[in-house]
Amino acid sequence: MQDKITLFQEVSTYGWRLLYVQNILIIIAILFFPPQFFFLFFSWQLAYILGGIINLTFTFAIIIDLIAILLICISYGAISYYSEEKQSQWRLITMILGLCWVGLSFIWRINLFIYGPYDIGFSMRSLIATPFFGTIIFENPILFFILLVASLLFLAFFYSNDMLLFSKQPELRIKGSNINIGTFYGFCNLFGASLLIFYFNYSTKVDSFNVPLSPLWVIQLAIFIKLIITPILGIRTCRKSMSSQIHEQEVTPVAFSILHEPFSWLRNIWHISGKSRLLPSKSTSLIFSGLLLVLLLFPLSPFSIHHLIPQPTIKGPFIYRNYSNNEALAALEYLESASIAGITGCPPIYSMENETMSFFLDRITKGISIEGSSFHPYAYTFIWNVSLKETDFPTLNYSTVDINWLDSVVNCFTWWENSTYHHISTLWGDELNETTFYKYSAMVKWVYYGWFKYSEVFGEVGAHYIDVKQLMYLSANFQILSIANLWGHAVA
Question: Residue 334: what are its φ and ψ, rounded to 5°?
């Protein structure tokens, strides 16, 4: 019987060693973050590859801690079964809490495993790869609720483990002195997760990309706690837990009062009694290295190596054409084939027509930038949306034209009256009645609403954005009555 208990105590020790390695991996991944900023200024390809390595490291990390705590729980359950120790109920409680945490954590992480190992969003690659970590988890109410419950169980698991390992002396049950480093480890994990949930779900405003506008310090503090403070506490927790199991006879903590001797109490919590070997034996290390090599070779195999090779990320192209019937389709096809730029004199790149669409699709297909051949974008976004429908009014004039749909400023407004061409280069929406269009009137049947967005991210953390809106009115025989364009572009 004692041999079985000894065997499962070894299993528990290996579990703590794995958890120790997991926290080390997180620290290593964090150290890779700063070089990404440096690489982005002269080679985004290297930054892209480094981001893939960071995500790969995190993928291993969020698998290893599940395996580690599962091993600890199995060993605790077996020891409780074979042992008649008076405090074995704490092992049973710790085992139940740990198994619940493993189950819930696997549920909320499953999407990360599916999207991984290179694009789960833990690095700067999340800026150019989809989906983003926050979108995967925190925009799903069920998943972020499971995450919160799992974080609570994580805290309860380590508190229960502290009670098991460090509360065997009766004097330690006073004034909260039984709280140990593991409890702080669990609390920091819970606090960091709570800040993330608050940042992504409890903001009152969102921007145009549906990203919460919470104070920036919230996400910064959450990242600092989750990825720096928590792993450090995790490393210390693993070392102290291994030491207490291997050198149990040397663990003689002293009860300090939190209120009267806070610094002595904290030193006692941080202190490790005895030495422990952190790494497994050579044979175990060889087996573990072999398994790790298999895991490494799979994502780096020819089948999936393209995930690590720096290829541009393309969001789209998304092309939408909305019409009500065949007649509307015919009118839409006519407008698409027409040279809107030639008709109005507006810049071709901002006129919605087939040539404009082909121009941007060609940029994406060839992987080149509108800025020139020296720029090599690593991310594109292209959305093209047009709608054609019958108007709710028979006559087009200054009061019926939906000029406000283009927002406040119109860059190009053109209309025809008795085959006479009229053009205004810049127009504020509320100034239309101050132009000669004030007396305009024509029979109208169709209204065209079109908009597109195009963006590139390239070079030294630079970007080019284009946003265009186009409003047109047509007669029953598809004659263009008026065209209004609004465009904006920015280079960062």
Answer: -65, -45
> What single DSSP character describes residue 444?
-
Tokens of 410: 């119109």
Q: What is the DSSP string of 141-185?
A: HHHHHHHHHHHHHHHHHHHHHHHHHH--SGGGGSTTTT--HHHHH
Q: How many CB atoms lie within 10 A of CB 270?
A: 13
Residue 42 · residue 94 · CB < 8 Å:
no
423 and 345 in contact (C-beta within 8 Å)?
yes
Mean pLDDT, rounded, for 17-29 = 89
Spatial separation of the C-alpha atoms in residues 170 and 301, rounded to whole Å:
56
- pLDDT, tens digit, 9 for 90 and up, residues 178-209: 577 888 899 999 999 888 888 776 654 444 44
Measure the CA–CA gap between 256 and 234, rounded to whole angstroms. Answer: 23
pLDDT digits (tens, 9 = 90+) for 435-487: 778 788 888 888 999 999 998 877 555 678 889 999 999 888 888 888 888 88
* CB of 452 closer than 8 Å to CB of 381: no
Global pTM reads 0.60
Which amino acid is residue 147, in one-letter code?
A: L
Take residue 6 and report the two structure tokens written for it.
């000894």
Confidence of residue 385 (pLDDT cuts 50, 70, 90): very high
**What are 409's two structure tokens?**
């400023």
HSE-up of 142 (CA within 13 Å, CB side)?
Answer: 5
CA atoms within 13 A on the CB side of 405: 17
Q: What tokens does 349 get?
A: 């790149």
Residues belonging to the chain: 492
Contact between residue 36 and residue 51 where contact means Cβ atoms under 8 Å apart: yes
Residues near 266 by Cβ (< 8 Å), separated by ≥ 6?
Answer: none
d(CA 452, CA 470): 9
State which H helix or E strand residue 380 sits in.
Answer: strand 377-390
CA dihedral 325, 329, 330, 336 (to 10 degrees): 160
CB 193 within 8 A of CB 226: yes
Please give the structure tokens belonging to residue 300.
């780096």
- Are residues 335 and 472 in contact, defined by beta-carbon separation less than 8 angstroms? yes
- Tokens 């893939």 found at: 52
CB under 8 Å to 244, separation ≥6 — which residues?
Answer: 165, 166, 251, 273
